[in-house]
């Protein structure tokens, strides 16, 4: 979901690769606009509004090549597509905005046909920063090119977090979460191979408070918590189909596909609720 900062709009993107995005009123539930993908494009399942709410940015790709595109939609003119940004790689996934307006794109680097990967030997993932006008400002990558950078978060200040899907050898268990600050290298979070094996090569959602980082793995049926300052892995907790995570009032809220919701305070004390709703991979907080 993309949540508008200045009106009661949200956008649901068809699961990747998908052919539409649906704008709706999250109070009434009424559909506002249906945005179809161009015939030679598809959506990658993520998007974000500009900080002033004027533009909607969506990650897209060319169907034949997975060439990465950020589609720019004019909110005030019925979500009409007005521009495309490119030149940062193939297979973009999540996109977020920083407080200064910069766009951050998790570029997976994988050319797919449907969901089948076609270029695992040559994939080139990256974390790419774009200006509001589409200029490529900075691009960093991990040493292991089989780590497809997909899901993103930031801590409200200057640190970007990225979660990876590992596309290498199935018996290799490698770090799947990294953090980045402007002008620096990507730094991976801690954990032994047997810890990372719990995540089953896939991280879905990430969030950060002032002191901690949390990442979920629906495939691994767990979530991990790290110390933000030391990058040390503090704990891994079992949660079937662990899905979305958001931070509200300095506390984590974690969802799951079986309906459980876990609330985690600053001291990492936990409360578990049963919601009766089977949640998917991500959560967005409306404030």
**CA-to-CA gap between the ends?**
14 Å
Number of strands: 26
> What is the quaternary state of this protein?
single chain
H/E element order: EEEEEEEEEEEEEEEEEEHEEEEEEEE
Averaging pLDDT over every residue, what do you get? 95
Name of the CATH architecture of the domain at 2-141: 6 Propeller
CATH class identity of the domain at 2-141:
Mainly Beta
Molecular structure report:
- By secondary structure, the chain is mainly beta.
- It has a domain of 140 residues: TolB, C-terminal domain (Neuraminidase), CATH 2.120.10.30.
- Helix content is 2%, strand content 48%.
- Strands 1-2-3-4 form a four-stranded antiparallel beta sheet, with no helix packed on it. The protein has a four-stranded antiparallel beta sheet with strand order 5-6-7-8, with no helix packed on it.
- It is globular, with a radius of gyration of 18 Å.
- The two termini are 14 Å apart.
Please summarize what this structure is.
This protein is mainly β. Helices cover 2% and strands 48% of the residues.
Question: How are the elements arranged and paired?
Answer:
Layout: E1 2-3, E2 9-13, E3 20-25, E4 31-36, E5 41-49, E6 55-62, E7 68-74, E8 80-85, E9 92-97, E10 103-107, E11 112-113, E12 116-117, E13 126-130, E14 136-140, E15 147-154, E16 160-166, E17 177-180, E18 187-188, H1 193-197, E19 206-208, E20 212-217, E21 222-227, E22 233-238, E23 242-248, E24 251-256, E25 260-264, E26 270-274
Antiparallel strand pairs: 1-2, 2-3, 3-4, 5-6, 6-7, 7-8, 9-10, 10-13, 11-12, 13-14, 15-16, 16-17, 17-18, 19-20, 20-21, 21-22, 23-24, 24-25, 25-26
Protein name: Exported protein
């Amino acid at each position: 979901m993309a949540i508008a900062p200045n009106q009661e709009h949200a956008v649901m993107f068809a699961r990747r690769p998908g052919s539409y995005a649906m704008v709706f009123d999250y109070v009434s539930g009424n559909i506002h606009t249906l945005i179809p993908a161009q015939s030679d494009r598809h959506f990658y399942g993520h998007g974000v509004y500009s900080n002033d709410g004027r533009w909607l940015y969506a990650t897209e790709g060319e169907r034949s090549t997975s060439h990465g595109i950020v589609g720019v939609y004019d909110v005030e003119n019925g979500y009409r597509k007005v521009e495309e940004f490119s030149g940062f790689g193939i297979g973009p996934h999540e996109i977020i905005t920083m407080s200064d307006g910069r766009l951050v794109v998790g570029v997976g680097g994988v050319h797919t046909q449907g969901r089948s990967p076609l270029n695992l030997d040559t994939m080139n993932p990256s974390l790419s920063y774009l200006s509001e006008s589409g200029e490529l400002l900075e691009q960093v990558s991990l040493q292991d090119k089989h780590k497809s950078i997909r899901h993103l978060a930031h801590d409200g200040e200057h640190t970007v977090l990225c979660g990876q899907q590992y596309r290498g050898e199935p018996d290799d268990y490698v770090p799947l979460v990294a953090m980045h600050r402007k002008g620096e290298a990507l730094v991976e979070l801690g954990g032994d191979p047997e810890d990372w094996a719990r995540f089953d090569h896939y991280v879905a959602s990430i969030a950060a408070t002032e002191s901690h980082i949390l990442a979920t793995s629906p495939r691994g049926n767990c979530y991990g918590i790290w110390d933000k300052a030391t990058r040390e892995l503090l704990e891994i907790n079992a949660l079937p189909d662990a899905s979305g995570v958001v931070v509200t009032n300095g506390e984590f809220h974690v969802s799951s596909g079986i309906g459980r919701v876990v609330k985690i305070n600053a001291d990492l004390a936990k409360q578990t609720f049963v919601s009766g709703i089977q949640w998917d991979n991500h959560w967005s907080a409306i404030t």
